[in-house]
Amino acid sequence: MATSNDIRKGLCIEYSNDIYKVIEFLHVKPGKGPAFVRTKLKSVTNGKVIDNTFSAGHKIDEVKVITRKYQYLYDDENGFHFMNNDDFSQLYLNKEMIENSNLMKAGEEVTIILKEADETPLSAELPQSVYLEVVEADPGVKGNTAIVETGARVMVPLFIEPGDKIKVSTEDGSYLERVKE
User: Are 163 and 146 in contact (CB under 8 A)?
Assistant: First the structure.
């Protein structure tokens, strides 16, 4: 059993009959009154983000997790299929469990977070950035959007043309740079 002092980014906790991952936290010690921890929690089952404040010393139920690398194979109408590169076992995840899934292309390696007790998949994390080819871009329009090979729309600078490879942040889906080959 952990306390609110053990809260850190990436920690998975059980709260309100669901499992949440801490995405932001701030320890606050006001001049008057007791200390507390302000957190932003993301549900690993449905992706909902909530704000919560824990008082100092509050007991929290930590969920032990393990991470494994999986290769993205394909998707269907309900979710995504992945393969463990070590033992070739396959795993299925719902669409809600992956943020910015429209930036994944077949063969991409992702990190899947599993509950240690029964190896139930909780969520998947894409790499920090991905390299994608532009398939469609309107020439010379301010606020230009390009469509990349995965079908995602990305805001790009004026000089990006179809056929260019670009680096895209998976955190917010923003353009980072053009890749020189």
Answer: no
Q: Locate tokens 């007991």: which residue? A: 59
The pTM score is 0.73
CA distance linking residue 16 with residue 120, whole number of Å: 19
Contact 166/155 with Cβ under 8 angstroms? no
The DSSP element (H or E) to which 3 belongs, if any, is strand 2-3
pLDDT in tens, 119-133: 888 778 888 899 999
How confident is the model at residue 18, as a pLDDT? 86
Q: Cα separation of 126 and 38, whole Å?
A: 26
Question: What CA–CA distance (Å, rounded) separates 170 from 108?
Answer: 12
- φ, ψ dihedrals at 69, nearest 5°: -85, 130
How many angstroms separate the CA atoms of 160 and 154, rounded? 11
Rounded Cα distance, 22 and 25, in Å? 7
Is 179 within 8 Å of 131 (Cβ atoms)?
Answer: yes
Contacts of 49 (CB under 8 A, 6+ apart): 23, 40, 41, 42, 43
In this structure, are residues 41 and 48 in contact, taking their beta carbons and an 8 Å threshold?
no
Length of the chain: 181
